[in-house]
Amino acid sequence: MVFRSFLCTFAVCMNQGRIETITTRIISTTFIVVALAVFKPFGLDAWKWQGYVHLIALGVIGFSICMMTDIILKYIVKMPRSFKKGAEYIIRRNLWFQLINTPLVALGICLYRHFVLNDRVQGNQFSVVNFLETLVIIAFCSFAIGLYWRFKFRSKYLAMELEETRLLNEELKEMSEKPRLQELTLTGTTNESVTLQISHLLYIEAVGNYMKVCHLRNEQVRTDMLRATMKQMEETLQDYPMIVRCHRAFLVNLGQVEQIVSHSGSTQLLIKYCHESLPVSRSNMAQVKAAIKQGYSHTPSI
Predict the structure, then answer these.
(1) Is 261 in contact with 270 (CB distance < 8 Å)?
(2) φ, ψ at 56 (rounded to 5°)
(3) Which of 22, 23, 75, 177 is the most buried (most CB within 10 A)?
(4) Which residue has the higher pLDDT, 93 or 89?
């Protein structure tokens, strides 16, 4: 029964996602067709009432290519449509969609101009100039419809970001890494070194040619400077999965993160004891999330 219920829920989600995708593509294609009907490029005004038939045909071509682009993204680029992966993933996927779809739609319309519209209106032959002309028109329409969808789903994206941040904070609170009592010595290219318990490390910051090591000693926050590189620090700490790189200039101990704060597309980690905020770059966000989820999944039951 549980498995059957899961299958039913999965099928409903799949159907809802497919319907939403088709609806979005129909609205986007209709917008472009209406824009073409208003400005009548490619000599469409010469066809009189037949021009509307051609507009419908162009709409079918555009819709078909949009669906084909979704298939390319899903199976070739490996970016399926999913709201569970967060707003950043959706925005990045939409950008890839426009980069792939726009030239394909322009190519499809150019071929239609060459084989169908060229009989009555000269100058519709397939050429580089006509392709660039069509590409500019479709790119402008895609940009306009992209702004519309971004505005329409903005509140949904923000809600997703807040929910994702909330879940990560819950996982951080419930995560209880076993205390590591062994000492670790961090060394640089000179004679300086810092010896500390790994659970007392807060973060490491790259400051010029030095590494600023922020850690606890006798329940007080202390900072030490080492002449070293970030790569050296990463190699030394690679056996500790809860210490990850959150930014090009920061290594952070996720066990010492008090809260994750997300605001206006930026994410920061609030560190315990010193209450400093470390930035999380987009390129490192996936690594931070994976480390938190991995630590959460290994949390022992109480």
Answers:
(1) yes
(2) -65, -40
(3) 177
(4) 93
The phi and psi torsions of 226 (rounded to 5 degrees) equal -125, 140
Identify the three-state secondary structure at position 185. strand
Q: What angle do CA 4, 6, 12 make, to 5 degrees?
A: 105
SS3 204: strand
Estimate the crossing angle of helix 154-174 against helix 128-152, to 10 degrees: 60
Residue 2 has a pLDDT of 32
Q: What is the DSSP letter of 113?
A: I
| pLDDT tens digit sequence for 212-232 | 999 998 888 999 999 999 999
Tokens of 62: 């555009």
Nearest Cα residue to 47 out of 106, 117, 115, 130: 117
The answer to whether the CB of 258 falls within 8 A of the CB of 175 is no
On whether the CB atoms of residues 42 and 64 are closer than 8 A, the answer is no
pLDDT averaged over every residue in the chain: 82
Q: What whole-number distance in Å separates Cα of residue 109 and Cα of residue 141?
A: 14
Half-sphere exposure of 210 (CA within 13 A, CB side): 11
Contact (CB, 8 A) for 41 and 77: no
Of residues 222, 211, 273, the one with CA closest to residue 245? 211
- Report the SS3 class of residue 28: helix
